[in-house]
Amino acid sequence: MNPGIGRDVVPLLFLVTAPSGAGKTTVGRGLLEAVPSLVRVVTCTTRSPRPGEVDGVDYHFLARGDFEARVSAGEFLESAEVYGNGYGTLRSEVVRRMDAGLDVLLSVDVQGAETLRAKAGADSLLSGSLVSVFIMPPSLEELERRLRGRNQDSAEVIACRLAFALSEMEHWRRFDYVVVSGSREDDLAAMRGILASEKLRVGRTRGLVIG
């Protein structure tokens, strides 16, 4: 009988970034449903919950003072101010899941991604695990249509988000991959392909066991 071959792979820190409304939340949900080894980290924010959002499920909703205290204590892997609200990812939440052998999905804005990449590069655990993907909207017209379709923001806020999206889209070259958003099915297929490819990299293999 031929021996079997086992493979030990470093868990991935899968970072997905896009302008608001470009589809990172939708594709993230699809990935979590389709990939059993991938888990989400609940991020923190100082903004008020939107209708239907649940504390500890959608976000950890923190008071401004609590958020700033955690920033000062260095608890966040990344944190940023976006449209007047604080957002951050607790390093402890990421590390706990990766220590359990799970791949971690982070869906953050462009500003947060810049900070995270810098910190991950200096982190012995995370430096070899980070994979970054930028989701590019197919056009500004389509991005505006998606933002209006959410029925969550005023016309003034949407105009602000569109203007900010233009500056965010200039950062795509700093990521490992760029996906131009199409249908939900196409976006999910592209992201699953990236995940599968990254799991096969020789540099992420800690060892092959033959026996």
Task: Give the helices and strands, then pairings.
Layout: E1 5-9, E2 13-17, H1 24-34, E3 38-40, E4 44-45, E5 60-61, H2 64-72, E6 76-82, E7 85-90, H3 91-99, E8 103-108, H4 110-121, E9 130-136, H5 140-149, H6 155-169, E10 177-180, H7 184-199, E11 205-210
Parallel strand pairs: 2-8, 2-9, 3-8, 4-5, 9-10
Antiparallel strand pairs: 1-11, 4-7, 6-7
Describe the 3D structure.
There is one protein chain. The chain is an alpha/beta fold and 211 residues long. The protein has a domain at 5-41 and 103-210: 3-Layer(aba) Sandwich (Rossmann fold), CATH 3.40.50. The protein contains 7 helices and 11 strands. It has helices spanning 24-34, 64-72, 91-99, 110-121, 140-149, 155-169, 184-199; strands spanning 5-9, 13-17, 38-40, 44-45, 60-61, 76-82, 85-90, 103-108, 130-136, 177-180, 205-210. It has a 5-stranded parallel beta sheet with strand order 3-8-2-9-10, sandwiched between helices. Strand 6 (76-82) and strand 7 (85-90) form a beta hairpin. Helix 5 (140-149) packs antiparallel against helix 6. The radius of gyration is 18 Å and the shape is globular. The mean pLDDT is 87.
Keywords:
alpha/beta, Rossmann fold, 211 residues, 5-stranded parallel β-sheet
Write a brief caption for the model:
The chain has 211 residues and is of the alpha/beta class. The chain is built from 7 helices and 11 strands.
